Amino acid sequence: MKQRILAEETLEKIGKKVILAGWVNTVRNHGGIIFVDLRDKSGLVQVVFGGKLAKEAKKLRPEWVIKIEGLVKKRPEKLINPDLPTGTIEVEAQSLTILSQSEELPFDLGKKKLNVNISTLLDYRPLSLRHPTQQAIFKVQETIAETFRETLKKEGFTEIFPPTIVPSVTEGGAQVFKIDYFDKKAFLAQSPQLYKQIMVGVFEKVFCLAHAYRAEPSVTTRHLTEYVGLDVEMGFIESFNDLMELAEKLIRNIFAAINQKNQKELKMFKATTPLLPKGEIPKMKLRQAQEIIFERTGKDCRQEPDLQPEDEKEICQYAKEKFNSELVFITHYPTKKRPFYTYPDPEDPEYTHSFDLLGRGMEWITGGRRINDYQMLVENIKKWGNKPEVFETYLQAFRYGMPPEGGFCLGLERITMNVLGLKNIREASLFPRDMKRVDIIL
Amino acid sequence: MKQRILAEETLEKIGKKVILAGWVNTVRNHGGIIFVDLRDKSGLVQVVFGGKLAKEAKKLRPEWVIKIEGLVKKRPEKLINPDLPTGTIEVEAQSLTILSQSEELPFDLGKKKLNVNISTLLDYRPLSLRHPTQQAIFKVQETIAETFRETLKKEGFTEIFPPTIVPSVTEGGAQVFKIDYFDKKAFLAQSPQLYKQIMVGVFEKVFCLAHAYRAEPSVTTRHLTEYVGLDVEMGFIESFNDLMELAEKLIRNIFAAINQKNQKELKMFKATTPLLPKGEIPKMKLRQAQEIIFERTGKDCRQEPDLQPEDEKEICQYAKEKFNSELVFITHYPTKKRPFYTYPDPEDPEYTHSFDLLGRGMEWITGGRRINDYQMLVENIKKWGNKPEVFETYLQAFRYGMPPEGGFCLGLERITMNVLGLKNIREASLFPRDMKRVDIIL
Question: How many A-B residue pairs are in contact by the CB < 8 A criterion?
Fold first, then answer.
């Protein structure tokens, strides 16, 4: 529809004839005059049907798709709707075409808030996603993905498209999905880890937005079986500080872009991007973090190999109080808790040059320097109880010369969830997959 | 390595001290002076090791990773290498650090052409990808993906991230991969088709770069079991011409971007982007195309529901001769040969408002208008031998109001292959998957 304009564009068309098309958000009958809030991808605009058209417009029901021609008029002062970006105008309809009808809705889409529980939200995903608050989540998500790409391209990174069907289980045995691959078996990649590392040997600095799959047999509010990883890997690093520096730059750029492009969406959720300090995001070793937690709470996790969810919350709280930062890097996780390719700290090989970035009490990013020495990798694969043959393709990259390198991964849904303060990660995935649900309950 | 510069940047540093790092592409010993072609992501530069350093540099072997400090010097006129972008300079090494060693290579990476057969190319993928001609393929691929996104964002499209694990077989029974999904079965998406259509109900115009999976039990030079689809779907269309118009715009923008950014890569393959007419890309109905083929070759395919590979070649040849276009739209495929959601031509419902874009004898894009009427969709699902219950989530989008809409899909590897004139689609996939190979031969 070439001459169609969007709802938000009507503001610049006062006194002009326009063509609009979209969904009936709400219909109100005021003494024979029909008021329709028309919704399109830009938002809402009020369309008024009087005279003969009112008769036809009376039939309209929520989610019918219509096209109208009409005249854009300023509203009288007292009829201005300050809640609506187009609330200063309305469109007087001159024609009405019905493009598609709708059955009666299972819930009300016309209210400012979508008051449905998570099951209904997901049972009616094609419909619930149409609500402005749900659209908002994925507009913020798009900004995150876009800023990720733009930032890395400016830094000289190359985008790659690694495969998701893989020949063997790599990072852990139990949590992987098996595929019937003709008369053989293959698996769904737990991450593009091995491929992005291989590609450092080709393009030095690479990134990808890759689907990753985890067959974790549990249903939580922060795990999905299929998610989108924003993956980064870079060669010729001096130390793993280079990686944290880049991760911080990414996060700062993402927050800045959200604040620039998504004010409307942030407001819907009464959300603000997390507080960041003027200087660098604070960093502390895992053992230091555990000491602090012990001092603050009396809970002794100082021998644990990782932080528990409540520890993550506590240390984030500490970082906020002490450094004015809602994000904090935790570094030097124990060697045994990290994958075989993690680079040990030369000063204390019990620990690694690895890091997590925690935000608002949850893990956002995980990364670290990798072992780039072929022999050391082969030995570690054995130590971790695997067979080097299984990693033949991966090991080639190191057998034939690999610079010092490392990388990290951000979970797209995790960041979306945490920026907007969503309670369940499923809200941050268009069609979330978990142990029980793949669109429908299996 | 903060002070490191890239090979191509040395041209601007004549007389200056620089730090370089990369892979040893070739080593030559000329009477005790060692000449190394150092390769990094920008290309090659010659580094000269004399004096004491020559002794150390003698040990260097192809694919060792090194870091050097050195002085950039103009080469004497007679030593200029016109084949090398940095051929007017060389770097006199002042220090050498070995970052990583390499085993002996299974083939020569230092030649201008990579002379290996397809098996070797894929058996040693991490290594073969390092050759400049192989890197070139994926630089062109990146341009295609990038231009696709940029064009659509400018047109008001929203990027979405649809899932790849799906609850049921959708577009055809046999060609789908089964997943062990906990104690249930799920499948790998043959395309994001149903999800992008659902999302028209939300964002009107959407696109995605989505992995798609086909369990076709055959090994050809133009099929992969996992590929990247550049998917587009848009609502509020007037007719399927809107879709072809957008597809043409995308193709023209992609060619323009390749010509602007990838001259070096095109030259390596002696390739040019396909010829396009000044006016629109020619369009013809399938039946017209078949008539033309019959007239030109005597081969009577006029009753066939589709074009065979040799027909596609013939009609592309015709379009080139007649319209000066290496691309041609074929429209109006028979209703029975297209998926259940394809919109029938109201003037002749035996045929559909569908199209393929053929280029250089091969299918590049397939698309069409979709049925947006709920009842008609339900009936068609039954006619095609499926159960509407299986499509419950998809059908919701239409039950609750969907504008006239349609879309199309470009295969990322297909376009890369055809632009560069590659003989096998595997060359256009970083880690190609087919019936027999998933990195290694299964």
Answer: 258
